[in-house]
Design goal:
By secondary structure, the chain is an alpha/beta fold. The chain is built from 14 helices and 19 strands. It folds into 2 domains: 310 residues, Adenylosuccinate Synthetase, Chain A, domain 3; 98 residues, Adenylosuccinate Synthetase, subunit A, domain 2 (Orthogonal Bundle). Bound molecules: guanosine-5'-diphosphate, 6-O-phosphoryl inosine monophosphate and magnesium ion.
Length: 436
């Protein structure tokens, strides 16, 4: 015990990788349950920085079984690159891929670009990793799952049919040229399939066995609540259920198996991609935070848009995920400013709005209302590390007041506070893996 979901409460890049890595050192199993190569989870171990796109953030620990769940869409080429990079660094994690996970193929990338271009203002600014088209194929039952991918004759048969269709769509609908012949794709991808075949095994059974044996299980979310296909700011999000419900469908467990849902909260807002962000800072404060925090996309390198913390988003995230605890990140990055602002609610026409509205149209019509907070000083790398060692009371009082205010407003207790990218830069208020 327990089974815990770690989920992004905002627009992604909250620091899920760091938080999962922190817990994973004592976990038996980490399962990624949604998304694919669109995710970029950064883990810092000493001087070494790891960027995982598909791989669960438990991969740096020998004892941890790392599962790519059925809810994922996997780019086999990129996944092999990630595995090879770890092997070259002398790290050989236990990795298992669900046979129910879907495969991202070359025509998905081409379609991702073509669709975005045609969407104009409706484009989400995707990562161009083929995510939308791959999930669209899954829903339309045009997808290829790993169970089929690793059987050459089935892969060939499905690819023959799909290649013809996709070629016509790409050329006929979008007027683009698609270069990969069926034979070329088959040759390249059947090679990937062969290499990945030893990793494929029924993960649903494994997860259930782990839970039955009271193992410590982490379900690692990708993206964030506002990017969820149902609960996010449609159409400016991704194509999967990134919220805690997705942890069930994306791994094959029921909601009753879950004990904790930990929402990762960056203490300000960041976002890569398009769509409205009510608290966006297009000024020197935004630039200060972006530069200080190195806020550039882990996957695409794009500069992240920065804004003040937005409580309506967090209240909404608490509801749709059923959060039991909060993990705050980037307390060190937000330091060094005289005054901070938190959006407590929006004003929309004459109405007070306290939780994210349904559509981007409503959100665009909302004006954020702020409460000001005194900032806290930057303790410097060593100072933050010291504070992490000493514990919660060693944090600047202004930082504690800020975090406690958010926790109170959201109605969810603080479990963890991160004051730097490393595992050691962490203050734990509630240890989810403590024996009862
Ligand atoms: P994820 O997608 O949610 O896993 O987040 P990313 O890895 O894309 O982006 C989070 C970035 O913040 C990474 O570079 C982390 O190393 C870094 N990070 C996480 N927590 C902290 C923190 O408390 N302080 C600082 N300075 N960096 C952090
Ligand atoms: P992690 O797991 C931040 C955004 C893209 C785009 C939209 C759709 O690192 O938090 P997609 O390629 O999924 O079709 O893009 O979602 N997006 C992310 N933003 N972090 C992510 O993942 C993201 N994954 C997708 O920028 O707006
Ligand atoms: Mg990221």
């Amino acid at each position: 015990m327990p089974v815990a979901v770690v989920v992004g409460t905002q627009w992604g890049d909250e620091g899920k990788g760091k938080i999962v890595d922190y817990y994973a050192s004592r976990a038996d199993m980490v399962i990624r349950y949604c998304g694919g190569a669109n995710a970029g989870h950064t883990i810092v171990h000493g001087e070494k920085k790891f960027k995982f796109h598909h791989l669960p953030s438990g991969c740096l620990y020998r004892r941890t079984t790392n599962i790519l769940g059925n809810g994922m869409v996997v780019d086999p080429k990129k996944l092999l690159e990630e595995i090879d990079a770890l092997h070259s660094a002398g790290i050989r994690p236990k990795i298992i891929i669900s046979p129910r996970a879907h495969v991202v193929l070359p025509y998905h990338f081409v379609l991702d670009g073509a669709e975005e271009e045609r969407k104009g203002k409706m484009a989400a600014g995707t990562t161009k990793r083929g995510i939308g088209p791959a999930y669209a194929d899954k829903a339309a039952r045009f997808g290829i799952r790993f169970s089929e991918f690793i059987q050459p004759h089935i892969f060939r048969e499905k690819l023959r049919m799909l290649h013809q269709i996709k070629l016509r769509v790409i050329e006929g609908v979008y007027g683009m040229h698609f270069t990969g012949t069926e034979e070329e794709i088959y040759r390249e991808y059947s090679n990937y399939a062969q290499r990945l075949s030893p990793f494929v095994s029924d993960t649903t059974e494994l997860v259930h066995k782990a839970i039955a044996n009271k193992r410590k299980v982490l379900l690692e979310g990708a993206q964030g609540t506002m990017l969820d296909i149902d609960h996010g700011l449609y159409p400016y999000g991704t194509s999967s259920n990134t919220t805690a419900g997705g942890a069930c469908t994306g791994s094959g467990i029921g909601p009753t198996a879950i004990d904790e849902v930990i929402g990762v909260v960056k203490v300000y807002t960041s976002r890569v991609g398009t769509g409205p962000i009510p608290t966006e800072l297009s000024d020197t404060t935004g630039n200060f935070i972006r530069d200080k925090g190195g806020e550039y996309g882990t996957t695409t390198g794009r500069p992240r848009r920065i804004g003040w913390l937005d409580l309506p988003t967090l209240r909404y995230a608490a509801k749709v995920n059923g959060l039991t605890g909060l993990a705050f990140t980037r307390v060190d990055t937000l330091s060094g400013l005289d005054k901070l602002k938190v959006c407590t609610h929006y004003r929309c026409k004459d109405k007070k709005v306290v939780s994210t509205p349904v559509s981007y149209v409503e959100l665009e019509a909302c004006t954020p209302v702020y409460k000001e907070f005194p900032g806290w000083r930057d303790l410097g790398h060593v100072g933050w590390l010291e504070a992490a060692k000493k514990g919660y009371k060693a944090l600047p009082p202004q930082a504690r007041a800020y975090l406690e205010f958010i926790s109170r407003e959201v109605g969810v207790p603080i479990y963890l506070i991160s004051v730097g990218p490393g595992k050691e830069d962490t203050i734990v208020l509630k240890d989810i893996f403590k024996r009862k």
